[in-house]
Design goal:
This protein has about 130 residues and is mainly α. The chain is built from four helices and two strands; from the N terminus they run ααααββ. The two termini are about 25 Å apart.
Length: about 130
Amino acid sequence: MLGREVGEKLDVLAADIECLARRAFEDAPPEFTEWLVLDLFIRGLSPNELLRHIQLAHPRSIIQALEKAEEMDEARARHRRGTKVFSARDLTRSDESNGEQEEQLVCASQATESTPPRKPPACRQCCSPFSGSR
């Protein structure tokens, strides 16, 4: 069974599974192929915590599963790097030292990361976008 290699990006895994399923089941109805791709993608996830999380989310398409898995994977990566995600209640008030009582909100986190926009996933062989709907 096709599974995720260590360090392999989730969109690469999804693209590989999509391409293999399209080639292996050319004559199958699209609904079957979409179901198969989704099932194989979820079964190929690692670690098991990610696999269970995506199974419990009950995604209806490979795109939904991929988006949820990437979201969870990024949260796990942030946790491993020690970067915390803060909410509004984590903001503290500080007064300027020049005697004025101006209030300023300061985030307790020093790390700010922006994620670049992501291209829609596509097959690496034929470059066609995934057939799953959102």
